[in-house]
Design brief:
Blueprint: H1 2-13, H2 18-33, H3 37-50, H4 54-66, H5 74-91, H6 96-108, H7 112-125, H8 129-145, H9 149-162, H10 167-179, H11 183-196, H12 201-213, H13 217-230, H14 235-247, H15 251-264, H16 269-281, H17 285-297, H18 307-315
Length: 317
């Protein structure tokens, strides 16, 4: 605190010294990283009394959003954060970072159409490749929630060209292509990813998932077996292998895999969906519907498709 006050005094007498400003902004940034949100907001307010700068408003918005659980209501945090970002944009309409933070804020508060619009403004202004990659990735995520899957695919494809070694891009793209039943592009994407990340269990899981969706259950099990040799106990691999065993009527193996998957991660929404499929196959509708409810409780949403809602509507009261 003493260091901060000293720097404030120096800054107020000679604000043109960029080194002093950078030191202050670094302190506030570190406070946010250390989850000292109230201190960061206080110091932003002190700085803003000396000089109105977009960097300070963006830092304050970050502290508000990241520390939202420490404050009164989400509505007040959202309004204060957006007000800060609007002021930052007024001060420098061409600074991409303000729009990127605005997009992030809209995503946190589940205003996905507004997030897409904000990230679009960010992308139009961004010149740094790392930041552009992040903005495309985040806009793609927001577009999924607006059901603009083709837009999300386009964003991820452009992001892949910017950062072709990023694992997450191959996972996102192959998952979306699979959800769209475009298994040709899904498989192509997985194979590209495996060249850069050999043996990665998540990519292997996606490859097995592609085979699974083509009803090639035995081939999918072979892929899951291979991945599990390197990553024993991986809950997603076990869950998907269990689903394949269900479809092949090998119920004992299916239940063993699905049960182990739940034990490994009791909050994995997808395994509850697979358990529901297992219980439907066993003609136990009550337990199937219980597991569909758990899938929904733990976050099975549009990212994964509409299967849970369709099964609940068809089979559950």
């Amino acid at each position: 605190m003493k260091k901060f006050i000293l720097l404030i005094c120096l800054l107020s007498t000679s604000f043109s010294k960029a080194g002093n400003l950078d030191s202050l902004l670094t302190i506030v940034d570190q406070e946010i990283k250390n989850k000292q949100y109230k201190e960061a907001i206080y110091h932003c307010d002190v700085l803003l009394k000396v000089k109105q700068l977009p960097e300070i408003y963006v830092l304050k918005a970050r502290a508000l959003v990241e520390g939202r659980k420490q404050f009164t209501t989400n509505d007040s945090v959202f309004t204060a954060s957006i007000n800060c970002l609007n002021k930052a944009i007024q001060l420098d309409p061409m600074w991409a970072v303000s729009y990127g933070q605005k997009g992030f804020t809209f995503i946190i508060f589940q205003q996905f159409d507004s997030a897409v619009a904000a990230y679009t403004e960010c992308i139009l202004r961004e010149t740094d490749s790392a930041n552009l990659f992040r903005a495309l990735n985040d806009r793609g995520a927001a577009r999924i929630f607006t059901h603009d899957i083709h837009g999300a695919l386009a964003d991820y494809e452009v992001a892949k060209k910017i950062k072709p070694d990023d694992l997450g891009i191959y996972l996102n793209l192959s998952t979306l292509y699979s959800n769209e039943k475009d298994y040709k592009n899904a498989e192509k994407t997985v194979m590209e990813g495996l060249k850069k990340h050999p043996g990665n269990p998540d990519l292997k899981n996606n490859y097995g998932w592609i085979l699974l969706n083509n009803q090639k259950y035995k081939e999918a099990i072979t892929v899951f077996n291979e991945a599990l040799r390197f990553h024993p106990g991986d809950n997603s691999l076990l869950s998907n292998r269990g689903f394949c065993y269900t479809k092949l009527g090998e119920f004992e193996k299916a239940f063993k895999d699905l049960n182990e998957s739940v034990q490994a991660d009791p909050h994995n929404s997808y395994v509850y969906k697979n358990l529901a499929v297992y219980y439907f196959a066993k003609k136990d509708t009550a337990k199937a519907c219980e597991n569909l409810d758990l899938a929904k409780k733990y976050g099975f949403d549009a990212t994964y498709g509409n299967e849970v809602e369709e099964l609940r509507t068809k089979n559950c009261k």
